[in-house]
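INFO worker-7 received task bundle
INFO bundle size: 2
INFO processing item 0
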Amino acid sequence: MAQGGGRKGRPEGEPSVKVRIYHNPRCSKSRETLRLLRERGIEPEIVAYLETPPSPAELRRLLAGLGMGARDLLRRREPLCRELGLADPDRDEEEVIAAMCRHPVLIERPIVETEKGVRLGRPPEKVLEIL
């Protein structure tokens, strides 16, 4: 993991946990999850997903790790969700994934990924399961 993945200069024998967080700094849950990780001595790779959206393949991989369908990770209260009709159960899963990648504001956050799994940080403590 690039940009700050894992910890640098840790004492010999201390476990290294590689963590990636799909982060929105304006989201209180995302900030709280990042704080929770850092309190445990983990400096994650931070993916500013609004600036660098996931590819459809990456989003599918995250969804599989979460055990969710695309609509489960969709921010349904986002006005764009209604405008695009994405909550409609007749919409194809691939259409929803493509829209989420084109408009990452539609993706619920934060998402944390480690070697042990993927969790949505709602509540933030959920990510402790995969550390």
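INFO item 0 finished
INFO processing item 1
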Amino acid sequence: MNSAVDPTFNISSSVSAKPDAIQAPTKIKVEKLDFYYGQNHALKNINFEIPEKRVTAMIGPSGCGKSTLLRVFNRMYDLYPGQRAEGGVMFDGVNIVGKELDPTVVRTRIGMVFQKPTPFPMSIYDNIAFGVRLHENLNKSKMDERVESCL
């Protein structure tokens, strides 16, 4: 059975098999990606490319790893102890999985929109203040006002 966790799954076969497929520059390239929830090896040897300026869909049954893969793109796993990614996810030629890259920088370039609200594992105040802190340097009093106005 082919799935996102099957290392033999070729995600690009349906596009490359079509002679009229338009080739676009690669925006995201996933290379030998493995992902772990603690000892659970959830994604195994994932390899594929996502072209620039093209709509790309992740389709598969529940539990096959679609959401896990998308969370890797945004480095959401950094927020949860015991989760880790190995391998490469190149975004505009930069490995966004690498420990040397600040995940905040990644999140300013790759956003996530979920079906249901998914707050970060911190207080309501800190969830609201998170985006403001990325773009503004407010003192505590001003930040308190901003957070309160959002509630």
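INFO item 1 finished
INFO post-check item 1: The beta strands are 26-37, 40-51, 83-91, 94-95.
INFO post-check item 1: Residues 119-151 form one domain.
INFO worker-7 idle
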